[in-house]
Each structure stands twice: as C-alpha cells, then as structure tokens.
Amino acid sequence: MILSVFPTFAVGGAQIRWATVVNHFGRRWKHAVIALDGNIGCRERLDPGLDVTFPQLEIRHGDTLGNVRRFRAALRELRPSTMLTHNFGSIEWAIANRTGLVRQVHVEDGFGPEERERQIPRRVWLRRLFLRGRTVALPSRTLMRIATDIWRLDPGHLRYVPNGIDLARFAGPRLPAPWPGEGPVIGTVAALRAEKNLPRLLRAFRLAGADRPARLAIIGDGPDRPALERLAAELGIASRVHFAGHVADPAPLIRALDIFALSSDTEQMPMSLLEAMAASLPTASTDVGDVRAMLPQEAGDLVTPKDDQALAGALRRLIDDPGLRSRLGAASRAKAERDFGQESMFLAWKQLLSGS
User: Which numeric CATH code is attached to 2-164+341-354?
Assistant: First the structure.
C-alpha cells in the first residue's frame, strides 16, 4: 500500500499527474490519500475501480509537535510500503518519519506566492534536515538546481522526473469555440490563485487586444475568481473574457483555443503548458521555471519577463500573425511528441514507487 500525503487534493497539476500515474498502474498497488486541508476534489480523476481510501486524521494547524505524534501513530497503523509526501506543506510527515519508519519519496513541484522571489530560510532548513537521505523527485531542472545549491541535498538522492502527457487526448483538428465573439481565442488553464497572477493576464489582454478582435477564456476555478471578474469589468473587457469555471476534462476546451497564455509568477514544469503543446497551440508565457526549455527554441522570444507590457507584446504578435501561430503550434506539438510522452514518466514513477 502506498500512502500519498498532499497539502491539498484539489484539482491541480501535481494531483492530476498522480491520478494519471495511479490510473495507469491500476490495481498494482493499494492507495491511501491524505489531504491536509480536507479537499479531495481530484478524486474525480481516479478510476472508480481502484483500491483508494481517504483516511481522516486530526490535524491542528500550528501544533507541529502534536501533529508529528499523530502522524507517527498513523504511519504505525497504516504501515504503508512507501509514503509519498508532496511539497513543503507535508513537511510534518517527513519530520514524523525522521527515524525511517517507512520508505519515503518526497515530491517537490514548486512554490506558492510567498516564495515567488526567494526561498524562506526556515523552510530551507527544514528541507535540509528532514529530506536528507530521502529520495526526492523533481519535475524541473530549475528545482534540481535549487535542491542541490540551496537545500544542499545529496544529488545522489535526487531524481529528475519530467511530467508527461497523453498526446492522443489533444490530437486532431481545432474544435469550434463555445465562447461568443470574434477573433482568436486566447486561453489559460489554471487554479485561480495568487501565484498564477491572472490579473496580469487580464491587463495584458486589454493592452494587446484594445484595438483588435480577440477573446480570452479562463478555464479553472479558485478563490480569486470574484476579484478577477471585478477586474475584468473595471478594465472594460468583461464582455470578451469568459470564465469557464472548473471543467473535469478540459481537453475539448483547450482544443478550441488559438493561443495559450501563462501569466504565473512561479511555475516549474506546468502540466497546462504540456497540454497546450500537445494541442498544437502557440504560447505566450512569463519566464518561470523550465518554461523556456519546454517550448521549441523558435518560441523563445514569446517567453517574457513578469511584466504586463511584455506579455501583452507577445500576445499581440500571436493575435496579429496566423502564420506564426500555425508554425509555433506545429513546433510545440512536435516537441511534445519528442520529449513529453507519458511512457517515460510512467517508467520513472514505477521505479520510484517500487524502490527499484
């Protein structure tokens, strides 16, 4: 049995990847999933035939010592063959396992808005102390550098495991856009949270499309949605901005886009970008994480500083040039086929979970 601990099991890139891996291996393992915030929304992505449970534990925020005692007791009771911890939010489980009660693999996918510019020293020290000697899986080269240079973890315990995508789900011709209006459809897929900086995308869209037809589709939901809807109205673009909300399978909507946009302050190897590449979409993005390396080389000048005007300039170029969109979209699909298929990801995760 594999125990997976998430700060949240809401729908997001790391959770979707985990569900994809678990679905692929079917009943090879039993699973227990603990969501520290109680949100298990990504349960919808799991094959209902799997053996997955969601144990409920008492968790007291701020009571680190008490939580560690409770988590150690849970490890003794559950007795997993492997514990999979995700991101800094699960560090108390790493502390509970400091004596090696169970085999542990720690997965780091990136940071929240509080660490968009620099690492928080307390978190650096806790990672140094309690991830030492553990296998740590990282999906980006940027995180590999951080883990060695800042957290000072042993490179021999680090595993670079890039994300993969089901290329077939996004293949085929463009689908009709379900949103009213004229001009190319710019879209993004994101949890509506601070680190995604969707206000930047709204402002950049206004700057790029003020004198040209275009539409913006925001696929996803989250706590920032009311503020984003207000901002769209204040910017005078509400009639051209469409909030799709949470969509269980966003693939058909992604295939209805003409341009993909990423406005985040912090990312590592975003699944949404892989999906856009698999759907043959050109991308305008802020320069975060491994985004520049993920995209085809010829798309490099559309990877911009974290600035409204710069992102608007990249969007404007794509709005105005259908030929450029077509060329970059084809190059993105080709790179996704070459570098980001699922099979290598599945093999890497099989080795991580089985300890081979």
Answer: 3.40.50.2000
pLDDT at residue 288, rounded to an integer: 95
Question: Cβ-count burial of 161 within 10 angstroms (0-12 exposed, 13-18 middle, 19+ buried)?
Answer: buried
- pLDDT tens digits, one per residue of 225-253: 999 999 999 999 999 999 999 998 999 99
Domain with CATH 3.40.50.2000 in the chain: 2-164+341-354, 167-339
- Which CATH architecture fits 167-339? 3-Layer(aba) Sandwich (3.40)
pLDDT digits 0-9 by tens, 118-143: 889 999 999 999 999 999 999 999 99
Rounded to whole angstroms, the Cα distance separating 213 from 215 reads 7
The per-residue b/e assignment along 197-220, b for 16 or more CB within 10 angstroms, e otherwise, is: bbbbbbbbbbbbbeeeebbbbbbb
Are β-strands 241-245 and 158-160 bridged in parallel, bridged antiparallel, or unpaired? Answer: unpaired
